[in-house]
Design goal:
By secondary structure, this protein is mainly alpha-helical. 58% of the residues lie in helices and 6% in strands. The strands form three sheets. A five-stranded parallel β-sheet has the order 2-5-6-1-7, with helices on both faces. A three-stranded antiparallel β-sheet has the order 8-10-9. It has a two-stranded antiparallel sheet with strand order 3-4. Helix 15 packs antiparallel against helix 16 and helix 20 packs antiparallel against helix 21.
Length: 672
C-alpha cells in the first residue's frame, strides 16, 4: 500500500495554538485569554479650548515612547485649572495608540497621614493588566516592570505631591502623565517634561463659556467678567456654566453681580484653597434640597468616594437623582475602574469647600455617625458572605443590601478599601471605639485575601487601641492576632511574636476559648516558619482542643494540624486527621474547607510516595477552586501538579497545569 506524503507548512504571523497532524483524534486545547485592555481615564466633559501647546507636548512624548524612548510629562498648576480634563482629552484622541490600555490612579485615595500606599496602588494596576499581584509587596514593583515591558500603556497619576512617588511607579515602557499642584522639577532628571498649566485667559475662557451657552446668551463683557471672577479656572466655569444652562431665564449679568458682591473683586486670592469659595457658595445655593444634602455628606464623609447606596444610608433622599444633579454641574465625577457598582469622586477643591461648609454644621456628628455605621454594617455583611469563621461581634447590617456571593463581597470590600480605612481612622479620632474594632474584625478577609499590608497594619493598630478602651479583652486578643498575621505574612516574625505575647497577657480575662485557639494557631504557623514542625503540631493540637464544639474551627485546626504532621514526617497521621475533617466538612456543608482539604491530602500522599493518588486530590482541589473562583488556591494546586507530573514523568499532566497557570497569570486575579 502506497503511503501518503504529507507536508505541513506554516508561514506568516501565527497567534495561539498550531497543530500539525495527518489525523487528529480527540484534542483539547486551552485558549489563552488575551490580556485585558483597561480603560480607566475618564472621557472629557465637553468643549475644550486653548491647550494646544500642552496637547502637542503629550503627542511628542508619545512619539518618543513609540520610538522606544522614555515618556514622562508633568503638568502642575492650581486645583481646578483643567489638568485632568487636558489628559482626558489627550487619552480620548489617542486611545488607539495605547494598545495596552490606559490606567488611572488618584494618589489622594492612597495617601494616609502623608504617605502613599504604593504597593496597594500597584496591586490595582497589576490586576487591571491581568496579573495577580504577589503577596510580597517588594515583588510587586519588579512584576510591574516585567508586565509593562512589552505593553504600551498610558499611566495617569493624579494628585502627586513628591517626585519619589512617580519614580516608584515608572513602568518599563509607556507614557506616564502626572498631574500635581506642586512644582516637581526633580523629575527632569528622569527625563520628564515639566510644564505649568495656567488659568484660561479672558479670550479662551469666553470662548469656552460661549461654546456652552450659545451666541444669544450674555454679552462679551459679561462673559469676560465671569471668567475673571472664576479665576479662569475651568472647574469653576463648568459649575457656574452648568447652572446657567439649567436655568434659561437666569441672566449671566445677575450671576456676575452676585459673584462680585460676594468676593468684592476676584476669585484669585493669595490662599489657593480659598480661591473658589464664593463661586462654590453660589453654586451650592442653587442646588436642590437633595443636592445640598449630598453636598453636606461630601463635606462630612471621611473617604474619597460616595455612592447612591452610601448616600441613601446616610439619609440623603433621592440619592441617585442628587448624584446626577451634582454630576451635571461638575461637582462630582464617576469613578472609572473595575469595581462593582457606581461610585463618585468629588474634585479635591470641591471636597475642601464642602468640608468647610460642613465643619460647623449642627448635625455633623449625627451625619458622620450614620456614615460610619453604614460602612461597619456593610463590611460585616461582606465578611459573613464569605463563610463561617470566628466572629466576636453580633450580627448586624440586616437593613442594608446583602451580597450574592463571597466573590461579590470581596470585590466590594476591595473597591471601598480607601473609604474603609478612612472611616476606621475617623471613628478612632471620634473615640467611637466599638465601631473601630468591629470594622477591623470584618476587614480580615479583605486584608488577608488581597494582601493590603499597609492598610492592614495601620487599621489594626487602631483596632487594638480601641478594643482596649472599649474594655473588650477578647477583642484585644483578636486585634493583636490579626495584626500578628499581617507581620507573619510579611515575614516579620519577631513583630508577629511580639503581638502574640502582648495578646497572651489578656487571656486570663477571655471566656471564649476559641479566641485562645487563634493564638495557638498563629504560634503554630510561626513554628512551621521557624523549621520546628514538632512544636507546630503541639500548638495546632492545642488550637484544635480550644475549638471543640465549633464545626468550622475544628475543621480549620485539623487542616493546620495535618500540614504540621506532614512537615514532621508523620503523613499517615495526617491522613487520619484529614479523614475526620473531610467528613465534618461534608456534614456541615463547609464548602470553603472542602475545597482546601484535598490539597493537604495531596501533599500527604506525595510524602508517602503515592504520587498518582496525590495527583487525583490536587486535581480535585484545582477543580473546586476554579468553580469557586479561588484563583490563588487553584494556582497552588496546579503548582503542586506540575511537581507531581515531573516525578511521574507525565508530560501531558505537566503541560495542562503549566497552561492553566499561564491562564491564571493572564487574568484579572480574584480571590474568592
Amino acid at each position: 500500500m502506497e503511503q501518503r506524503r504529507v507536508a505541513n507548512t506554516v508561514s506568516g504571523t501565527v497567534g495561539g495554538h498550531v497543530v500539525q497532524a495527518d489525523t487528529i483524534g480527540s484534542v483539547h486545547l486551552h485558549q489563552v485569554e488575551p490580556p485585558p485592555r483597561p480603560r480607566q481615564v475618564r472621557l472629557p466633559h465637553g468643549p475644550f479650548v486653548n491647550r494646544e501647546p500642552e496637547l502637542a507636548a503629550l503627542t511628542a512624548a508619545l512619539g518618543r515612547v513609540e520610538a522606544g524612548g522614555p515618556g514622562i510629562v508633568v503638568f502642575t498648576g492650581l486645583g481646578g485649572v483643567g489638568k485632568t480634563e487636558l489628559i482626558a482629552k489627550f487619552a480620548e484622541e489617542h486611545r488607539d495608540r495605547f494598545p495596552g490600555g490606559d490606567l488611572y490612579a488618584d494618589l489622594l485615595a492612597y495617601r494616609h497621614r502623608g504617605g502613599v500606599d504604593l504597593p496597594s496602588l500597584l496591586a490595582g494596576f497589576l490586576r487591571a493588566l491581568g496579573s495577580e499581584p504577589p503577596a510580597v509587596e517588594a515583588e510587586r514593583f519588579t512584576m510591574f516592570r516585567t508586565v509593562t515591558a512589552e505593553r504600551r500603556c498610558l499611566f495617569f497619576l493624579d494628585n502627586v505631591e513628591h517626585a519619589a512617588e512617580v519614580r516608584a511607579l515608572l513602568p518599563s515602557s509607556g507614557l506616564v502623565v502626572v498631574a500635581s499642584r506642586r512644582r516637581l522639577p526633580a523629575l527632569r532628571t528622569d527625563g520628564a517634561e515639566v510644564r505649568q498649566l495656567g488659568p484660561l485667559g479672558t479670550s479662551a475662557g469666553t470662548d469656552l463659556v460661549r461654546a456652552w451657552l450659545g451666541a444669544g446668551r450674555g454679552t462679551d463683557g459679561e462673559l469676560a467678567a465671569l471668567v475673571e471672577l472664576c479665576g479662569g479656572l475651568p472647574l469653576a466655569l463648568n459649575a457656574v456654566g452648568s447652572q446657567l444652562l439649567d436655568r434659561d431665564n437666569l441672566p449671566v449679568g445677575r450671576v456676575v453681580a452676585e459673584l462680585h458682591d460676594r468676593e468684592g473683586g476676584s476669585a484669585l486670592l493669595d490662599d489657593e484653597e480659598n480661591a473658589l469659595g464664593p463661586t462654590y457658595d453660589l453654586v451650592h445655593e442653587r442646588l436642590s434640597p437633595k443636592g445640598r444634602a449630598l453636598y453636606r455628606l461630601i463635606g462630612v464623609h471621611p473617604g474619597p468616594f460616595v455612592s447612591a447606596e452610601s448616600a441613601c444610608a446616610a439619609g440623603v433622599e433621592q440619592a441617585g437623582a442628587a448624584l446626577d444633579e451634582l454630576r451635571a454641574v461638575h461637582l462630582v465625577d464617576e469613578v472609572v475602574d473595575d469595581g462593582p457598582g457606581t461610585r463618585y469622586r468629588a474634585h479635591d477643591v470641591v471636597r475642601l469647600h464642602a468640608y468647610r461648609r460642613a465643619r460647623d454644621l449642627p448635625g455633623r456628628q449625627e451625619l458622620l455617625a450614620r456614615v460610619v455605621a453604614y460602612y461597619r454594617g456593610r463590611a460585616a455583611l461582606a465578611d459573613r458572605a464569605m463563610g463561617e469563621r470566628l466572629r466576636l461581634q453580633e450580627a448586624g447590617g440586616e437593613e442594608l443590601p446583602g451580597f450574592a456571593s463571597g466573590v461579590a463581597a470581596l470585590e466590594w470590600l476591595h473597591a471601598e478599601r480607601a473609604n474603609l480605612r478612612a472611616v476606621v481612622e475617623e471613628a478612632a479620632e471620634q473615640q467611637w471605639h466599638g465601631e473601630v474594632w468591629r470594622l477591623c474584625e470584618s476587614l480580615w478577609p479583605l486584608y488577608h485575601g488581597r494582601k493590603l499590608y499597609e492598610d492592614w497594619i495601620a487599621t489594626h493598630r487602631l483596632g487594638v487601641e480601641s478594643a482596649q478602651w472599649d474594655n473588650q479583652p477578647a477583642a484585644v486578643v483578636r486585634m493583636r492576632n490579626q495584626l500578628a498575621r499581617a507581620h507573619f505574612e510579611r515575614k516579620e516574625y519577631p513583630l508577629a511574636a511580639e503581638q502574640l505575647a502582648l495578646a497572651a497577657e489578656q487571656l486570663p480575662l477571655v471566656a471564649d476559648r476559641r479566641v485562645v485557639g487563634v493564638l495557638h494557631e498563629t504560634d503554630g504557623l510561626l513554628c512551621l516558619a521557624d523549621g520546628r514542625p514538632g512544636d507546630a503540631v503541639e500548638r495546632f493540637t492545642l488550637a484544635l482542643a480550644e475549638n471543640r464544639g465549633d464545626d468550622h474551627g475544628e475543621i480549620v485546626q485539623s487542616y493546620n494540624l495535618a500540614q504540621a504532621l506532614i512537615a514532621d514526617g508523620r503523613a499517615e497521621e495526617a491522613l487520619t486527621v484529614l479523614d475526620g475533617a473531610v467528613a465534618r466538612a461534608a456534614d456541615t456543608d463547609d464548602r470553603d474547607m472542602l475545597m482546601k482539604l484535598p490539597l493537604v491530602r495531596a501533599r500527604a500522599h506525595r510524602a508517602l510516595g503515592q504520587l498518582r493518588l496525590a495527583a487525583v486530590h490536587a486535581g480535585d482541589c484545582a477543580r473546586q477552586a476554579e468553580q469557586r473562583k479561588q484563583y490563588a488556591k487553584e494556582a497552588q494546586a496546579h503548582t503542586l501538579l506540575v511537581g507531581l507530573a515531573a516525578e511521574l514523568g507525565d508530560e501531558e499532566l505537566a503541560e495542562r497545569s503549566r497552561e492553566r497557570l499561564r491562564e491564571l497569570r493572564a487574568r484579572d486575579g480574584r480571590e474568592g
